[in-house]
Predict the 3D structure of the following.
Amino acid sequence: MTHQRIESGFDPSNPLVAHASSFGQVAEVYERGRPSYPRDAVTWLLPDGAHDVIDLGAGTGKLTRMLLDEVDDVIAVEPSEGMRAVLEQVVPGARSLAGSAESIPLPDDSVDAVLVAQAWHWVDPATAVPEVARVLRPGGTLGLVWNIRDESVPWLAELSAILNQPAERDMQSENPTVGEPFGPIERHDVEWVHELDRETFLAMITSRSYIITLSDNDRAQVVRDVTRLLDTHPDTRGVDLIRLPYVTRCSRFLLPG
């Protein structure tokens, strides 16, 4: 999900490193709980006529599998061995490589687009931006995408209060840091609703980095509080499928060609 030095224990005192490196511990939970992305968002992010695309920070391949329906060659680049193992199992049609935004294991001018789903906020833009520009062909596209819970919905606002994580609304998704040599940002939002059962919903909650890194007791308390919300709120009480509204925030940047 971020710089490959994380896996080797680089600067473990850094809280960002601890959060970013936590996903490999719960790769199967991540795969089960995290949503995919709306087709309209993927279509908008991809440049016309793209053939070779990197899914950078691919995780377990939530975006990767959608790209396989759109382009000829999808290269999933992911530093976490645990995440890659799940990706290779569930998305066998993609090429999987160990690497990061700061160190992409591909030659210069090798792809038409680099897409980054739910991960750009973990990278070091000062290193990642020139590295992405290096592997892109002239005129190529860097596309960034985040699923953000729609906290204008009252029960989701209550959920965020329980999780004590208001940054869910942002993660730099409205104005991500990129800059030169890329052109100006283009933005597009897609509103949609993800339907999931209670078990999958709780898997989604426990796959968040800020939940993974809690103590066992604190994590169990969060799960109890979220369960209580599901049991008592009129929008979620007694339903078979929980309707979870998202805003998928998309940004794209063109490399001059």
Observations:
- Residues 75 and 128 are 17 Å apart (CA to CA).
- The longest strand covers residues 136-149.
- Strands lie at 52-56, 73-77, 95-97, 111-117, 136-149, 186-196, 242-254.
